[in-house]
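Title: Prediction job returns without error message
Component: structure pipeline
Severity: low
Priority: P3
Assignee: unassigned

Description:
Job completed but the reporter wants confirmation the result is attached to the right record. Sequence as submitted:
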Amino acid sequence: MEDRSEAAPEAIPHGDPFSLFDNWFAEAQHSEPNDPNAMALATATAEGAPSLRMVLLKDHGPDLGEGQGGFVFYTNMQSRKGMEIAANPRAALLFHWKSLRRQVRIEGALSQVSEAEADEYFRSRSRDSQLGSAASDQSRPLDRRETYLARVEDLRRLYEGGEVPRPPHWTGFRLVPERIEFWLDRANRLHERRLFTREGQGEHRGWASTLLHP
């Protein structure tokens, strides 16, 4: 790992935040021991009561969502987070890569992916993951674990030799970023932060950025 005490005065440059995220994410894929695509997802009720959990990033880039760009995750719409998203379709994401001593915070509005996108991703999952999603009443009370496992086995027999259909309440959401903040650990807690914010409209929409006090 580089000696950050000897790093340039500014190690997080202005530019395209999606490109910078790609570079950091690629490094995390080599350095993180488990799930470099894990991210904290914060949602809130219509009244503003927050909740937080870890989910996995499944797609990202500047060209998603008709060129708005975004970060995609999948979930059960009937889960707690699904219901909070329905009531208040805004969220925040946090990536924390301890091996690199870096963080990325992302905030913006959520939009549901298309049926075709959800179908394609569901088909790409392992069969056990498909069955597990289909059997789960996510976030609802469960009397005992055996009940859930029995439902998985029932579905395994039901769809034996065939395709497991995607449950209609299982889909993905795309967070369209309005703010992306990159944080880099520096020596003596003299950390570096750069905030990117959307500016402009339509085809003239771009990114402004500024350093922040650590």
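Comment from assignee: result matches the submitted record. The longest helix spans residues 17-31.
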